[in-house]
Amino acid sequence: MRTLYVRIVATFVGIAFVSGIVGLALTGAYYQERMKSESETKAWEMAESIRELYEQGMQSSLEQYLAAVAKLGFQIYAVDERLEGKTFGRAFKHGTLDDSAIRLVLDGGVFHGMEEENGRVRLFALFENSVRNTVGIPVRTPEGGYAVFVRPDLEAQIGEVRIVSAVLIGLTFLASLVLIAVLSRYIVKPLNVLKEATRRIAKGDFNVELEKSRSRKDEIGDLAEHFALMADSIGRLDRMRRDFVANVSHEFQTPLTSMQGLAKAMRDKQTTPEQTEQYLGIIERESRRLSSLSRQLLKLASLDRDDVRLQTESFRLDEQIREALITLEWQWSEKELNLELELPETFVIADAHLLHEVWMNLLSNGIRFCEPGDTIAVSIREERGNQVAVKVRDTGCGIPEEDLPLIFDRFHKADKSRSRSSENGGSGLGLSIAGKIVALHAGTIDVESELGRGTTFTVRLPQL
Fold it and tell me: Does any domain span residue 319?
């Protein structure tokens, strides 16, 4: 299997290789368009200078003169009228001259072999050690005419430069390969750390250490930061899932065990008629509580689905809250609570059935934790931003400050000292349901509380 490290290294090496080819092609094009004609002109002028110097002096034979010139860094091939040729300087390794080219020069013409040779391989032909890659000029001597073909001996003139350039390019390429291998590992290493962290999360271990990766100030650092946040969120969700299962099991198991014990006692004829009546009342209350708990769990499950669709309609919010108070009248009247209502006529567009659940939960919570003679206050106010705010305030026992951030968590109960009886204790799901419903309406629900002074819930909804 090809790893990411191998892929990155191969990609960088491929880029370097392709870049070299493209650079070579562009350099060849540049040479062809801008330097080729200049090089040909310099070569011709050089050959002309060699001929002029000889013809002006005529103090030695042509062969001696050409041998001396060759020592200055030239490759020369001279052909007499009998088409017998001789090389001066370093011998040519490639190519031969046609008789037609030699006759052209002997007849007084000029042979532009560099132009013809460079047309084959534009850039490399400049360096090819070929007799065809020369400039041919006629030279007159007392012994007769000669065709002299001249080319700069690049190995003699710039041989060291070529070697240094080749070594430089080779070492640069090798150094690039080493750096690619090292730096690619530096890039891939944090990804391997994330891979290992993913494997640990898949096995249920959410305590991943990504501090070194998160300290990077680049996209990988951002990825590590978001990955750590994701792992933390998954860990919290997993803990919530386990707590949820444990709480559900406990909430069902405790009353069921109690009901089973009471039913067994009655079947075994171990109770008096008065006790039997009392036990039946407890069984009835506990069965109602279990029924309510089941209904709330089903409600939460339905609200947790991604495809929840609100059945919105326009209705009077003040009338809905009054209906909720009427439904709970027997509870607040039994405690002789005082009601303070400020419910002006207010229309909203929302899911009436779901919002009714919110008011029932908030009002029943307030009633449950009030003492006889306390006050329940409900008010509706329109706010800026086209919002409506509903405040449900009670003067009951209040909520401890450390419990305020948790009251919307499922099965969380701020008043753990109270029993789970249907009269004093709730299931711990009501506020979770209320918060979920408000969130589905793109609203917010806030709480303020002071221990011993009361609690205020504020629900803000968009007044569409």
Answer: yes
Examine the fold and report which residue of 278, 308, 338 is the final residue of a domain before the chain moves on: 308
Contact 445, 458 (CB under 8 A): yes
Residues 102 and 232 in one domain: no
Question: Is-contact 363 320, C-beta < 8 A?
Answer: no
How many separate domains does the chain show? 3
Q: Are 110 and 44 in contact (CB under 8 A)?
A: yes
Does a structural domain hold residue 191? no
Cα(162)–Cα(188) distance, rounded to whole angstroms? Answer: 38
How do strand 387-394 and strand 144-152 relate by DSSP bridges? unpaired
The candidate with the shortest Cα–Cα distance to 106, out of 85, 75, 126, 132, is: 85
Residue-wise pLDDT for 284-293, tens only, equals 888 877 787 7
315 contact partners, CB below 8 Å, separation of at least 6? 347, 348, 350, 352
Instruction: Check if the beta carbon of residue 407 is closer than 8 Å to that of residue 416.
Output: no
H or E element, residue 389: strand 387-394
Closest by CA to 451, choosing from 417, 423, 424, is 417
Question: Residue 212 CB: number of other CB atoms within 10 A?
Answer: 12
249 in any annotated domain: yes
Question: What single DSSP character describes residue 423?
Answer: T
Between 141 and 391, name the one with better pLDDT.
391
